[in-house]
């Protein structure tokens, strides 16, 4: 056998293998190619009247934000309380029914007659308590469709009890002369 014959033979075999591999890949691509591109380079509008695929309801629409006994809501990082004390979480407004938050303009009086801005201070504390928290509330007293939650807990501690303790602590601090 000539010295260059083996090399030439390997070259022809690899060329033949490359052609066969390319042809096979082309046939597979042609047989599985979709009629329309799956991904587009530009946004494509969707006409909902012509859409045939089923749209599944969201967890909020189903009222499925927890297990059978609880409702779980993740509060936004910046809850932005409104006048009634409701906050944003899971894309909508919620109110904890067993927590009474005074209006921001409310002034309270301690036992010795000192006045303090309880509305502003308690709302600030409530907002800090809720920031990014995961509220777990009792399903029995809650009305998910109306956005009302009852008997809520953050890390196992009742929100209503925490707010009552905060109010008492603020009153004691002001009575002792510490703002």
Question: From the helix content, strand content and strand pairing, which structural class follows?
Answer: alpha+beta
Rg over C-alpha atoms, rounded to the nearest angstrom: 33 Å
* DSSP helical segment count: 4
Strand content: 15-25%
Major β-sheet, in short? 6 strands, mixed
Order of helices and strands: HHEEEEEHEEEH
Can you count the beta strands? 8
Keywords, please?
six-stranded mixed β-sheet; 4 helices; single chain; 8 strands; 179 residues
What layout of secondary structure does this protein have?
Elements lengths: L4 H28 L26 H4 L7 E5 L12 E3 L2 E5 L11 E2 L5 E2 L1 H13 L3 E10 L4 E7 L2 E2 H17 L4
Helix pairs in contact: 3-4
How would you describe this protein?
The chain has helices at residues 5-32, 59-62, 118-130, 159-175; strands at residues 70-74, 87-89, 92-96, 108-109, 115-116, 134-143, 148-154, 157-158. It has 179 residues and is of the alpha+beta class. It has a domain at 64-175. Helix 3 (118-130) packs across helix 4 (159-175). The N and C termini lie far apart (102 Å). The model has no long low-confidence stretch (mean pLDDT 77).
Short description:
By secondary structure, the protein is of the alpha+beta class. The protein has four helices and eight strands. The strands form two sheets. Strands 1, 2, 3, 6, 7 and 8 form a six-stranded mixed sheet that branches. Strands 4-5 form a two-stranded antiparallel sheet.
